[in-house]
Every structure is written in structure tokens, then in C-alpha cells.
Amino acid sequence: MGNLVWHEYSRLTAITASIYGVWAAFFGLFYRKFFWDFVGGTLRDPGGFHAAIFISIIVKVPVVQILTMLLGMFIIALEFPLPQLKSLAIHRSIVLRIVLLLFQTFLTILFYQGTNAAIWSFMAAICYTRAQLLGETMAEAKGNRGKAGDA
Amino acid sequence: MRSSKSKSRLSWSQTTFTKKLLFFLSSSLPSSSLRSFLSSLSFFNLSGRTRTLSFVSDCHLLLFTMGESWFQREFLAPRRLAFNVIFYGIHFGLFAYGWYSQQSNPKLAGLNTLGFSVWISRGAGLVLAFDGAMILVPMLRNIIRVVRPKLTWLFPADENIWFHRQVAYSMAFWAMVHTTAHYVNFINVERTQIRKQSALQIHYTQPGGITGHFMLLIMFAMYTTAHHKIRKQCFEAFWYTHHLAFFFMIGLYTHATGCFVRDTVDPDLRPFFPFYSTEHCLGYLSWRFTIWPGIIYFGERVYREYRARRATRLSKVLVHPSGAMELRIVKPSFKYTAGQWLFIQVPEISRWQWHPFTITSAPEDPYVSVHIRQVGDFTRGLGERLGVGPSVVAAMTQAAMKGSEKDQKTGGRGDFVELDFGSTATPLPAVRIDGPYGAPAEDVFNVEVAVLIGAGIGVTPFASILKHIWYRQKRGNLGTLRRVEFFWVCRDAPSFGWFQSLLQEVEAAQADPNFLRINIYLTQKIGEDMLWNIAVNDAGAEYDPLTLLRSRTMFGRPDWMTIYGQMRQAVESGQYIPGSKSQLKTKVGTYFCGPGVLAKAIKEATVQNSSSTVEFSFAKEHF
Q1: Most exposed residue of A30, B128, B317, B549, measured as fewest CB within 10 angstroms of its CB?
Q2: Percent of chain B beyond pLDDT 70?
Q3: Do the chains contact at B235 and A27, CB–CB below 8 Å?
Q4: Residue limits of the FAD-binding FR-type domain (chain B) (predicted)?
Q5: Contact indicator for B294, B132 with CB cutoff of 8 Å
Q6: Which chain A residues are within 8 Å of B491, Cβ to Cβ?
């Protein structure tokens, strides 16, 4: 597969998935629905609230959505990266990213709008895992070097 | 073991002059002067795959021009302003119409109870239909190649990839709007039960939802792999993933077959094409329009396949000391002009991959040649197949360089080696070529002075162009062209290897010392060792130590304002072109290929220096 640098590709997937996640969670604040409500009979015509843990943290109080937004924003800040995070060594941790993306997968799969974000986050996590297995390391932020290709 | 076996396959027509002549006699070329010119190409190794790719993309991107604000770039340049107004005007127009036609349709009163979200989703859906049609239009390469010369005044047809990306960005945005609106629609259908369905049933069991989610997933894969960084790292990842477009398009054309927009309780599906009744399914039926670019594109791909299968023969492989392989291909049905490029495929190495390379031969040549450096997996595989893997090439290069050190007087750096496949069991591999693509460079002959500027890898198309100019010069068929100024701005010394010999011969072949001027700028920072090396070797030498040309290499970035200013003064005072009358307007055409930052600086210089007697024109990526 050419000379694909997997963590650089994973970065793009992680950013895409996280932006989707934040946007989905934002809409999840207004249209609250537990994705898995078709399991175990919480979904009924004409609908209504039912006592279940996920109903209370997604529908009654949008805890999951808020957490997703915060997590998504943090991943985006880590990936772009935010100048404050750039200097930290943790910014270059691939394992941290895998963990965060798996968390994001778990959170987004819970609510109605988050399905695609969950699939994409999971794919991003797989890509990062591949990078980790290949032993790739992320380079320290380059100092004040000129941009390559400028003549 | 592999390499030693390969070595025995080589026949070394070594570096002595007599052998060189023998080679040329045997290669059946038309004239002796031509032979000497072609021998110039011995050093002239261009375009490894990644490099050519970056050239192709560099020449089409002016988007990331630095040093000006977003507003200046998008709104103060008249062409870009016109594009923005028309392109986004159409988008918002369609959105508004889509919204209105949904909201005002009495038959859809039921759906309209969903309110804003359904109006937005319908508007955005219509916009996406438009984008889905337009995304393929800039990819109709053969049609663009035919219509381009007639339409250059209307739109920059060379910017087809740029346009493709604009449509893609727009598509991503409207897909977000459309999807978001539908998420709201379906949850409201579930809550209000205007149809007896749950949101997830619509999402995951009906055609609209399934194809929609599937298209989003394909977009996710296609957009992320299309990033310029990924494309350069691993072209295959981009190339194969982008062919998911086939399934994307199938999804797009069948997106409305579930009859979501209807005035009946249940979808009015039929057992025959198009499998729903147009009486009750009240979508835009946009597939009737959007499918045409898809059909034409598919037809074009079939045609390209047919064209690629026409008789093609790899007639010769030459290996140059700098490590480049020159493939000379004979294909009678292949017609091209200077400055164009082609796709090449070697089925033995990769059944499906097509790799773009700049054509380095002139149309007058009896063959089509490309210069390939072994930099990527494909090009290395090709080297191995031809028996000149990287290790062999390194050995040959060293041998040739040694020969040249003894032979310094002739000013060369060793000669190329022709691979002899006649006496071995392994024949040359089959190759297929597809093309040509890119604009012809015939404009050069409609101006008095042609300024050719290649930056970095952007110099590749000028190989063919300089050769073509040379041929026409021999025939006395230069049109209005009186002088050629060739600029090559490049970053590091090793890249000089490519062009060195070509330029050397072109320079030597000039009867009129004023016809062609070669200006080479080296922009790299120079270390102390190199500085002294140059200082010691340069002083009093006839040839430049770096390029072995008579013209001296200049260090640092060229100051375009001064260069053009001086050129204007020289033209105005009548020194530049002998016999030019001051009352006639002199046309100076600039042809540039390279990164956008440089393009902008040069364009400014041409605009500032145009006067009543000298007209400077500028064409970026015109090749």
C-alpha cells in the first residue's frame, strides 16, 4: 500500500468522525432519542418516557450528548492541534487517540443521531491501531522551518 | 541473485564517442543534428510517479495562495467573484426552489406538517442532485480536452480538478444540511406517527435511508483519502477508494426509489421501471437529469479502455546515469502535442493501475517517450521487471560517472545505456498508454517573446516544449516567436541532473546566441562547503560547475519585478529584439507551471510592467 503513513490518514478520519459526532450530539440536545429503544419495548406508539438508565441520561437529561460534544471537541483540539496542546508530549500519543475514539464510538452509538459518527469513529480507531501496530511515531512539532515546496 | 542475473542482460554501449555514434546510427533517426540533440536527453530524467503527480496537482491549485485575505481572494478577483456568484447563486436558487415547491404543494400537505425540517431537506436534496451531476462533469477528461481550446475564454478548463473539489466541498456541506434535516424529519414522523413507522425503520429499512447512509460512508472514505497528503503518500489508496464513486452514483440515482415524498399513506411501488408511480411519488425525479453525466462518464471510461487496448509496443528502454528509465513507446494511433501528459499501465506489474507521466518526446519524434525515476512502489517494480532495479541503476550510475570524470572535457556526466532485450529470453513487457491529456502549448508560437517558467517539478512539460521549439526552429517554422527566455527555479542541486544535458545541447545547438536564454535559480540555502566548492570551481571555468552549462546558475529567489522591468526596458529601447519597430506592440507571453505562490508574484510582475508598447500576458498551468 504505497507509503501510506497511517497515523496521518487516521488523523483525517478522526477529525471527520469527531466533527460529525459534535454536530450529531448538538442536534441530540434538541431531539433526544435512545438509539436502542427498539430493543426491550421502550419504543411504543404513541411513545413516551420509560424508566431505563439510558432513557434518563439521554432523553430526560442529555448527559451522553453533552459528554459526546466535549469529547469530540477535545479530539478535534488534539488533532488539529490546539497550540496549547502542541507542546505536550501527550499530543503525540497514538494510544490515547485510540482510547478516546473508542470512547467516542461508545457514546455516539447510544443516541439516535450518532450512528454514523460511531461507525466512523470506530474506523478511525482501527486506522490508529494499525498505525500503532506498525510502530509509527508522531513527529515532534516542527519549529520554525519553512514550508516545503515554496520556491 | 536477481540483480546479478539482470546485469547479464544488459548490453553496455558505453560512454565512448564512437559507440555513442553507432548507437545513434542504429536507432534510425532522421538527421544527424537531430541525433546530437537527442543524445542530449541522456541526462534528462523526469517524472517519477509521485513527482509527476505533484506537478499535475501543483499546476491546478491556486487555492492556497498565501499573503492575501480570504475576502481578497474570493471577491476581489473578478473571475473568482463571477464564479462564486454563479456557482453559489445556482445552489441557493435551487435550495429556495426546492423549499418553495415542497411548501406550496397542496398534495404534500401531510409531509408539510413536519415543518421547516422537511422544507430544508427537500431544498438541500435538490441542490445535492445538482452537485451529484456536476461532480462528474470536470472528470470527462476527453470531452474537456476537445472543448478546451474553444472555451478557454469562458472558463479555465485546466482547473477541472479545482472545480471537482469545489463541487465536492459544496456536496459535503449540503449533505450535512440534508442529513440533519432528515434526522429531524424521521424522529418527528415517529413522534407524530403521521406514518405508522419508527425513525429507525425509515433510516435502515427504506431505500432512501439505506442509500443515504451508504453514500455518507462512501463520502467519508473518499474525502479522507483524497487529501493531498494521502494522495502523495499512497496514490493507490486514493485511486482505488475513489472508484467507490461507482457505488455512490448508484446510490444517488436510486435514492428516491423508496417514494418517501408521496401523497399516499403507503408508497405506490410498481413492479416495472422505475418501480414507483410518478403519480403519487412526488420527488423531483432528478435522476432523469443527473444520470446523464454518469452515463457519459461511464462511456468515456469504456472508450479509454478501448483506446488503451490499441496496438502499443514498448520499443526501447534507456537507462540514464541519474537513474531514470526512458521508455520509448510506439503507438501509431496516439497523437499529441508538446506539453501534454499520458497515463501508462504495465499489466504485468499491476493489472489495474494507471500512472500519469509527462510526455518528454516532441510530436515530431517517431515514438512517445516518458522518463521514469524509481521512487514509488510501481516505478521500482517496473525497474525490477526491466532488470534495472535500484541497485543495478546505482552501479550503472557510478560507472557512468567515473567515465565522465575522465571525460570532463566533453562536459558530460556519462551516457545512457540501452537495455538489450533481443538476445534474452525475457521480452519487453507489454505496456498500455491512455491519453493524451492536458492543453497543447501551441500558443508559444503566437507571441514574439516566450517566457517559460518552470518551478521545481513543474519543469517537466517544458522538456517536450523545448524540444518542439527546437524542431520548429530547424524547419524555420517558428511563427512569430523571436526569443525564448527559459527560467527554472528549483530548490536543491541534485534536481539539476534531470535537465542538465537537455539544456546543454539546446544551448550548444543555438546558432543565434540570443534566441534562447536559460536562467537557473537555486533557492536552497547553501552550506559553507558547497559555497567554497562553487567558488573554487566556478572562477574562470567555461561551464557552470553545477549545471555544466554556459549560463551561470543564480542563487536565491528571482526578483520577478526587476526581471520583467528590465525586459520591458530592453524591448522598448529596441535592444531586445533586433529590428522590432517601436510603434508595434510586442507580445510577451509567460507560460508558468509550478506552485501558486510563485504564480501570483509573476502575474503581478506581468500586469505591472505591461505598457503601450509591450504586452505581457500570463498563463498558469497552460500545459
Answers
A1: A30
A2: 72
A3: no
A4: 301-443
A5: no
A6: 151
Q: Which residue of A has its CA nearest to B598?
A: A151
> Which DSSP category does A50 fall into?
-
Q: Say whether residue A109 is in contact with chain B using an 8 A CB cutoff.
A: no
Residues of chain B neighbouring A23 (CB-CB closer than 8 A): 176, 180
Question: From the list A38, A115, A120, which residue is nearest B220 (CB)?
Answer: A120
Contact B193 A46 (CB under 8 A): yes
Name the band, by pLDDT with cuts 50, 70 and 90, for residue B329: very high
B364-394 pLDDT, tens per residue? 888 898 888 777 777 888 888 887 777 776 6
DSSP B439: -
CB-nearest partner of A13 from B190, B224, B598: B224
Provide the H-helix boundaries in B287-416.
Answer: 287-308, 377-385, 390-406
pLDDT per residue as tens digits for the range A116-126:
999 999 999 99
What is the residue extent of each domain of chain B? 2-60+312-437, 70-305, 442-620
> Which fold does the domain B2-60+312-437 belong to in CATH?
Elongation Factor Tu (Ef-tu); domain 3 (2.40.30)
Q: Which of B180, B456, B523 sits opposite A27 (nearest CB)?
A: B180
Smallest CA–CA distance, residue A90 to chain B, in Å, is 23
Lowest mean pLDDT among A115-124, B498-507, B521-530: B498-507
In 3D, which of A122, A11, A77 has the Cα closest to residue B233? A11
| Grid coordinates given for B424 | 534474452
B183 and A2 in contact by Cβ < 8 A? Answer: no
Phi-psi category of residue B47: left, alpha or beta, with phi > 0 → left and psi -120 to 50 → alpha: left
CATH class of B442-620: alpha beta
